[in-house]
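> forwarded from #structure-qc
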């Protein structure tokens, strides 16, 4: 083999190494960059405590979190999720059906964006983030179970979902 042949052999070998290295780096970047779909934690309990003013409801949401701030954040989106997909029941509240007539999974793209972007927070009027009673906090091996009182603006949320087509307007049914 002459010098040119050795050069081409080395060049091809180096090119193959570079191609493998390039593809490996591209794969790693893709795997890191590709986010999995937001996972919603359905492990919560929600009971309406009492109705508020202007069609709002005060809901007690019990949720697990790795710490208090994580549990409070989850309680807020769980309250909105509960109103959207489970309805309002319990306490001194008039029962209200779930706002959405289709499941989360049927409209996952919209609801994933709705919850991950924080858009749901405009329907959370208030919460007792800084005054959670001791009886509403339970330490567990996996973190904390906490009960958070969250006020949800039911009519505003229902109106927005009707406008977007995720809730049926009773006037349009008949």
């Amino acid at each position: 083999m002459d010098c040119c042949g050795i050069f081409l052999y080395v060049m091809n070998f180096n090119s193959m190494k570079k191609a493998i290295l390039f593809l490996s780096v591209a794969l790693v970047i893709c795997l890191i960059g590709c986010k999995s779909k937001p996972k919603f934690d359905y492990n919560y309990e929600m009971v309406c405590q009492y109705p508020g003013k202007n069609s709002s409801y005060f809901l007690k949401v019990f949720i697990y979190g790795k710490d208090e701030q994580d549990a409070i954040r989850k309680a807020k989106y769980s309250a909105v999720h509960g109103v959207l997909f489970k309805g309002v029941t319990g306490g001194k509240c008039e029962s209200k059906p779930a706002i959405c007539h289709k499941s989360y999974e049927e409209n996952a793209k919209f609801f994933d964006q709705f919850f991950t972007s924080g858009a749901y927070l405009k329907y959370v009027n208030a919460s007792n983030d800084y005054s959670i009673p001791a009886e509403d906090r339970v330490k567990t091996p996996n973190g904390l179970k906490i009960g958070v009182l969250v006020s949800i603006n039911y009519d505003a949320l229902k109106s927005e979902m009707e406008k977007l087509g995720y809730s049926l307007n009773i006037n349009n049914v008949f």
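QC bot note: The chain has a mean pLDDT of 80. The longest helix spans residues 3-33.
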